[in-house]
Amino acid sequence: MTTNTTELPTTYSPADVETKWYKTWEDGKYFKPKKGKANKSFCIIVPPPNVTGKLHAGHALDITTQDSLIRFKRMKGFETLLLPGLDHAGISTQSVVEKMVFEQEKKTRRDFSREEFVKKIWAWKEEYGNHILNQQRAMGTSCDWDYLTFTLDPIPNKAVKKFFVDMYNQKMIYQSDYIVNWDPMLQSAVSEAEVEHKDVQGNFFHIKYAIKGSDETLEVATTRPETLFGDTAVAVNPNDDRFKHLIGKTAIIPLCNREVPIIGDEHVDLEKGTGCLKVTPGHDFNDFEIGKRHKLPIINILNKDGTLNEYGLEFAGLASKVARNVVSKKLDELGLLLDKKPHMHPVGHGERSGVPIEPMVSKQWFVNVSDMSKRAVAAVENGDMKFYPKEWENTYYSWLRNPKDWCISRQLWWGHQIPVFYCDNNHQWASEHDVTECPTCKSKNVHQDPDVLDTWFSSGLWPMSTLGWPDPKAMEEKKFSTFFPTTVLITGYDIIFFWVARMMMMSLQTQNQVPFKDTYIHAIVRDKLGRKMSKSLGNGIDPFDMIAQYGTDAFRFTLAAGSGYNRNINLDPDRIGGFRNFINKVWNAFRFIYPHLQTGSAQITDMSKLDHHERWILAELNTTTKIMNESMEIYRYDDASSAIYSFVYDKYCSWFIELSKNILNGDDAAIKARRVSVLKFAFRKILALMHPLTPFITEELWAHLKEANEDLLIAQDYPEYDKALEFTQDQDQMNKFVEVVTSIRNLRASVNIKPKDEVNVELFTDNQELIKYFRENLVNFQELARVKNLSVGNKELNRPNKSIMNVLTHTEIFVPLDGVIDLKEQISRLEKELTKTKADFAKYEAKMKNENFMKNAPENVREEVLVNVRELGEKIHSIEENLVQFKS
RNA sequence: GGGCGUUUAGCUCAGCUGGGAGAGCGCUACCCUUACAAGGUAGAUGUCGGGGGUUCGAACCCCUCAACGCCCACCA
Prior knowledge:
- The protein is an alpha/beta fold.
- The protein has 28 helices and 29 strands.
């Protein structure tokens, strides 16, 4: 890093430095866990993105919040680990490859053997799988890449098998004929959580059912007439006087003329439909329950692709939606369709496929979660795991307090194959190892269950398996005991059910511990109008575009500034542009001190020799340090970013640098050196404070500011609050100085004095400390307000005649003018100010005179009111006095 | 149907346990002032969704109404 020869450009170019520093950090092994002075570990497992994935704005937010925290804790001396991974994402990956193969070869997966097709998916994964990881690198993620784990790697596979087999042997995993959500497109069962309910416009069909041996008929209401082929009963409410005499008789299903019993069941709603319900246990969740209660037979009328099977008679082969219309038409022709009216009703759709889900009975594997879910609830109730923000625990509870057994088998090829084996003598057993013979009958003719496990089954074990569990050697190598339980999980609220709940259950089950102590739920990134980003709307924001346009630091800072306890971030690229300008401001602040780097040291040797402004900036820096530390600890990235933003912009750049110009241009070497030291000291702290949020520019500038023997910024200590740097009097005086300077500028602007032209200024105040302070700041008034001569005096002194003036609570400001003054305008301005001040005054005076207020309000509030009454009273007095003068 | 959330400046949002309405972007005027025009200085803009209540005092607490959004449940 050459400090003195390079000419620095006026704008910062992110692209030039980002790849350079990432490589330097990675090659220098700065991302690897190291024991530090805090003597504690801090671990975040990155939610593994899908191998099919491309980085989207949500991932960028994940990374920003996780990496900022990791960098923060690393600098604070924690042994940090940010652990990366990739998810095989069963359904979506298989679909992507199926689609690709179909496009390229016009073949479906069924044209290949399972082995051949899975090989194709692996090839695809090898080619594209790492893409998203490189995008994560571009975001600056300080992961230890040696920990990179894929959900189908050997260790996660061991974990999956171990959990499955243990639970199988405890009978907590069982196989059952059960009504599941069948996705006819994927031709697989999917879990409850993978079904989305959407309102769909359908019809209510009223169908006439004959009753055997009677002239009476029943009018049954349904939205799905095509399922009547699967009816095995008709149900009425036993308390329904209209129909209860029919219970026990036999109804005849139209079209197929099957005889079924008429049963009484409380589930039937008297109000809904006609009060008569056709019972189709094979294709309706409620009917399935009714069927169990009444021991009704189950008839499956659908093929795996959702078309009617042979039970559909002449309609066999039709898709259920088509069959619905055809069947209803046929019923109409036969005079059996009594009514048909439009009806909006919710229909489950496959989350991945988007097609309507068919409830269907089939043999599937389930996990009994009743015990695990109770433990998972308790762990949050008793504080072992805390949600930030806290409200999200309700979402978590609502799912876990009312759990349904988890259907874990999927009829796919891509995933962890279920470790259950069968022999030709119908024995069944589970095994963690490959098997060649049946343990019961020793038959060599064995085969494994063809189904694979739900993707979330391996995801649920992720915090353990990435740290080596259950392999003792891997656990040792990966320091399981150091990093488990991990510190915090950071993710979006959309996967609290899918993932957070399952990790909690599976970790409590296998480790008897929570998998992480905190869960920070960050917002969902939306477009600037608050709409979800989606392909169909075309409103997605590509992180890569943002990085290219504004730089990674600006993008990260924007995301951090938007992340607190909110649930949406409406991301407007203009905002990123705003923060890009801020990053550039930091760059230029450095350009300002750059020529003076050799003049002062980086440490402040003698605190007692500092001047007012130096003490002031250190006090402000100290306050900022405190806010940043506190905010990062509780995931308030928004508060942290706004604290450093306003310190850098409004304190360091706008005032401290401006106040330093005359010193640096002066010739008092000692004062100059001291000021440079403070500038440098504060700037080094700024870089350290900002580094977790904006790693690249800060590391780049640090290279210029660091001492020869100092390490990279990523490895420096994070600044801490220091009581020795509290200087309240200097802060108070500086605030008054700023007020006066602003007021002079305001006066100048009000009469259009050119920025270059100098003016004389007279200040009047009764505060003797201030008089002294203002006099010491003569040169600063000259610089910052273009003042020529300044006089400061007591309020007893006479005021200049021809002048414009402002009144502050502590000081009167006069700018005498030689030319013609628009008296009218001055008077009107003063009168406006007087009205405003009087209104303010009245407010406080009323409070002061209110006995109840004086009795009840806390002392500091009372004190403030009294001060305001006094100061505003003085201000009114001043304005009135001066108005008299102007008017005379 | 059950639950949660949101409503503050033109836009996107902050505002911690109640005590003087804020930021960024945008806008207006004037400035190429020797770190920065991705800049500087000054400035305008708000019945804090409506109504009621508690309180000495409400953007903040309670009730109520309205609009919008999300989650869960439910194919009669």
